[in-house]
Amino acid sequence: MMYYIIIPAHNEEAFIAKTLNSILHQTLAPKKVIIVNDNSTDGTETIIDSFTDKHSIFKKVNTTSSTKHMPGSKVINAFTKGLDVLDNKYDFIVKLDADIILPENYFEKIAGIFKSDKTVGIAGGFAYEEDKNGNWKLNHPMNKDHVRGAFKAYRKSCFKSINGLRSAMGWDTVDELLTQYNNYTIYTDTSLKVKHLRPTGNAYNKQAKLLQGKAMYAMRYGFVISCIASLKMGLKQKKAAVFFDNLSGYSSAKKEKLPFLVTPKEGNFIRNLRWKNIKSKLF
């Protein structure tokens, strides 16, 4: 199977060479890799150039957006810039962060997943992060059927069905919800252990704390489901502030009448799916 990779990169000089080298060592090589240098002010671009000069699969795209690491909008805007320079001659497309080390057989196994089951729309492995003792430990949401936004692979037909990725906080949740709405499934492979070099959220701007709740509103969760989801997040992170920040963000979005990310019909499907998942864990 043929596949493309798009890598949004902002000030990634400490990590990006490791990411690009892990791509070069794949047992199934990509057809094209677009690296979107998004307003980097460090040595990121120089490192990218050293790879594009030596390896024809790499291509650089420069773009200028906000210097702030606001979840969702910045990274997906950069991803979209990369998407704009690609054709449709691929079987699956990958959104990859610039602080990732992939196992050598990663995309060979992803291709095998897509080949063996035509209903799979999104596939991926699991993230491992290094602790202070140098041990790589699993860092994954409670939902094991979720593929982390740092390394998501999309079957082309599914990617087209969900109309690409939303430029907003929650993009890597709404894509999976819409994948299921369009009768595709999500596949996670526990054997694919991905090294995530920067712990999740370390680069996020402090202004982002209300965005999760705003995303729940935009995905048409409704208040009750948003409360339950926020409570779970707060308990997982052991931070009561997460619960209150989420609800504050939800209320703010409702008051401001912010635009929704999904249609009313899609929202109804999402709420029913969320209730189904909640009930399955309670009973």
From TrEMBL:
| Keywords for the protein's UniProt record, in alphabetical order | Glycosyltransferase, Transferase
Which chain regions cross the lipid bilayer? none
Which part of the chain is the Glycosyltransferase 2-like domain? 5-147
> MF terms per GO, please?
glycosyltransferase activity
Q: Name one Pfam family in it.
A: Glycos_transf_2
User: Family assignment?
Assistant: Belongs to the glycosyltransferase 2 family.
**PANTHER family found in the cross-reference section:** POLY-BETA-1,6-N-ACETYL-D-GLUCOSAMINE SYNTHASE
Which protein are we looking at? Glycosyl transferase family 2
